[in-house]
Automatic annotation (TrEMBL):
Name of the protein in its database record: CMP/dCMP-type deaminase domain-containing protein
Xref: SUPFAM superfamilies: Cytidine deaminase-like (SSF53927)
InterPro entries (alphabetical): APOBEC/CMP_deaminase_Zn-bd, CMP_dCMP_dom, Cyt/Deoxycyt_deaminase, Cytidine_deaminase-like
Signal peptide from the UniProt entry: none
Keyword Hydrolase on entry: yes
Family: Belongs to the cytidine and deoxycytidylate deaminase family.
Residue stretches making up the CMP/dCMP-type deaminase domain: 31-107
Alphabetical list of CDD domains matching this protein: cytidine_deaminase
Alphabetized UniProt keyword annotations: Hydrolase, Metal-binding, Zinc
Length: 139
């Protein structure tokens, strides 16, 4: 995590925006959300969402993380997801609960992942994932 500047946030938003290529298959939409992440070593990975029936699709963050793991990296320094409305307005999307937990489980250090919530707003995953510690035994 070498660059905490707004410039890094803009770079990630730009990379996520570049992979937005919505494609409709029946009533499903693929690639309408893009994600970009920066690893602890400074490598950039991107991915898009795939909306399929029966809950078998996945979020853009999952695709970017899969690309990262394929490259044998596990630590996420910063991550963002974006979506463009039908009017052409770009939005940063916070990760859903499933993505938040997925990020956490890929590497324990990812609780410190900086999640981009807007051009000027970044929060550590630990603040977005309450009660993230494994519970103590009852007995």
């Amino acid at each position: 995590m070498n660059d905490n500047s707004p410039r890094m946030t803009d770079r990630l938003i730009s990379a996520a925006t570049e992979v937005l290529h919505p494609h409709r298959v029946g009533d499903r939409l693929f690639g309408n959300v893009g994600s970009a992440l920066l690893t602890g070593s400074g490598t950039l990975h991107t991915g898009v969402c795939i909306d399929t029936g029966s809950g078998t699709g996945f979020c853009a963050e999952h695709a970017a993380i899969a690309a990262m793991v394929t490259a044998r990296e596990y630590r996420i320094a910063r991550i963002v997801a974006v979506w463009r409305s039908d009017e052409g307005v770009l939005h940063v999307l916070p990760p859903c609960g499933r993505c938040r937990e997925f990020i956490r489980q890929v590497d324990p250090g990812n609780l410190d992942t900086e999640v981009v919530l807007g051009r000027a707003t970044v929060a550590p995953l630990r603040e977005l994932l309450p009660a993230h510690a494994w519970p103590d035994p009852l007995d």
